[in-house]
Structure formats: structure tokens, C-alpha cells
Amino acid sequence: MILCLIVGMMLSGCIDEFDADIPTEDSDLLVVEGTIYSERMNVFTLSYTQPINSSSAPRMVMGAKVSVRGTDGSEYVAQQTDGNYSTYIGPLDPDVEYYLHIETDGDVYESEPQKPLRTEKITDVRGVQDTPESNIDVLITPDAPFEPGKANYYSWTYDETWEVHSDYRTTVRYDIEQMKAVIDAYQFPWRGWKDATSTTIMVGASSNYEDQRIRRLKIYDIGYYNEERMYYRYSGLVHQRSISKAEYEYELARRQASSEMGGLFTPQPSSLPTNIRCLTSQKHVIGFVGCALNTSEYRFFLDAEDYAIHTPVKEDARQWFTNPEDWLCRQLIEKGLFLCEWFTSGTDGSLQTAWAYEEQLDVRYKGAYIEEPDFWSLTENVSY
User: Fold this and answer.
1) Is the Cβ–Cβ distance between 16 and 63 less than 8 Å?
2) Are the CB atoms for 137 and 128 separated by under 8 Å?
3) pLDDT range class, residue 52, cuts 50, 70, 90
4) Under a CB-based contact definition with an 8 Å cutoff, are residues 117 and 105 in contact?
5) Is 263 left (phi over 0), alpha (psi -120 to 50) or beta?
6) Which residues partner with 186 through β-bridges?
């Protein structure tokens, strides 16, 4: 077990969004982000590096000519929106090499031509909590590799969706004309959902796995302590893409440059490996353009009841009144309060009422949306 953990730590990588400080002499280098994908909209972001200690936002490249080209003569011209250049690409030919072509500031840049890589499906993604006081590790197992005789490299990103509830739920409403509570279960939406997209890229290699197949590799974790994402139900959608060894090494080097900038033995960003070259000058480029024939996805679900999740204990913040008269109920409504509870209790049959504000009853105040996602009704994980 210890050996597996060590291997997992060696093979996994969480790549932070790259925003490294660049020495003055290395400023204004072209930074290229994006991947050539089959049968989808392709987006490439072009920007310039910033000098050391710069606090300004990255300067985007405007007015460039960008296209994806194939060695068969095909070309897909990208349209510009700010610093993003987008183009839809149909089915890629697995026997053709594709590359990104950029013309800007009088220079021409091209990525190394490469054939699109096939990506295996994902066999399993699961959440594992080793102890009641540990985070939930998300572990992935790709399908058997297409080429088990050599090392396989992957990158992963993920999207998250989780269920959110309002602080309180009410199924009643105070009717001023009848001077009593009436059933109204749909007055406020109490159940909603939130989404998030990962800002990191995880990479892994199969070098030390049997049959060159990665098994149960940790790609990220979810907190167990006061973590809203795990209060009720959580779903993750993992995206898997096969990458080349060169792109894998680029991502590892980018991680080191990003997390250890300024260290004595840290490589400068201008020395990062790249597959993009300037054809008209000696200018260096930062970035790596991969090429994918397909990507694989896996949607999984985690239920709070299956894990030890610490949820905060909150005092009842509603306002309680016993045997309120009609004038008091009207006054509470005028103050913006809404009826939550209306029941008799005790031997004397006294009327107990609780009142709360709209932001305590409407889940949308927590930043949630109330349209249930199409996939939320699924009861099993799904591989795409």
C-alpha cells in the first residue's frame, strides 16, 4: 500500500495556472495556450509574458492571424475574440499531422506537426476517504491502454456540480385575510446546485504500473470539514486526454517554474520545453500545443451519507413567537419575514410559530441555480 502511494505521488501532478514572473530581458515573449481537438470548437489564447514584479494583467495578442493546418493541405482559420482565437474543427484524420500556425508582429510561429492521439476510455473514478478525519481522494483508473508495450501519458481536468440547500425550508404561508397558515410548498426554492471548473491540469504517466495501465491514481481531493460541496450530493465530470511524453514533460516543468519561481535551481520560463517555434527570428515561445483525436469523460457521484463529513452546527436563527396575534403576524410580514413553522405543542396546545427572511429560505441567495441538471437523476456512474 505504501509503495502504491509513493508511486502515485511520483506519477501525479497538479499543474497550477501558469503566471510566472519573467525577467525583464525575457518579457514580451509569446505565450500560447490551447489544444487541437477533433470535432469541437478549438480555442487558442495568445498573450505576452510580463516583467518581474509586474502587477498588471497579461497583455493579450490582438490582430494575429491564427489557423490550424494539416499536412494534407487542410486549414481551419480562427476568429478573434479579445485574446482568444476560435475555430471549429471537424473530424481529424488519424494519419495526418496537424499544427498551429500564428502570424503576429511580423513574425511567424508554428507548432510541431503531430498526429492526433487516441484516448482510452475511463474505467472508474471513485472517492476514497481513508479515515473519518481525512479528505476524500478522487482516484482514477483509465481503461487498458491501446499500446500496453510502452509508457502512456495523460492529462485530466474536471468539472464539479454539487447540491445546495437553503438555511430553512417552509411549506406554509401566513394568509392575512384568513389570519392563519395555509399550505404553500412552492413559495421559495430551497434546493439548488452550483458548478465549478478546475483551474488546474493533472498529468500522469504509466511507467511504473503493471501492463502500463494506471490504476487508482489520485487526481484531486475534496475536503471533509465544513465543505459545502459534500453536504448532500456531489458529482464530478473528469475529462481525460492522451498526451505525448514531450507535453507531459512540459507540464511538469511548468509546474516547477510556477510553484518555485525564484529558487536557485528553478528553470526560467524561457527555458521551458516547447513544441512551438518562431520561423522568422530567434524569439522564444512559451507553451505547448497538443493534438487529440478524441477525449474521454467519466461522470461520478458521491453521496454525503457514504463519508464522514463534518458539517457546521448552526443555532436556529429563525424568530419564534408563541400564540402570535394577527397584528403581530402582519407586522412580521411588513418587516420582510416569512412564516416557516406553525404548529401546536405542549399540554396547553399553545401555537408555536417560526419566521425567517427571504435570504434564509431561497437557495438562490447562496449563488445556486434551481434548474435540476439533466444528469442529476442518474443513479450510477457513466463513462463517455
Assistant:
1) no
2) yes
3) low
4) no
5) beta
6) none
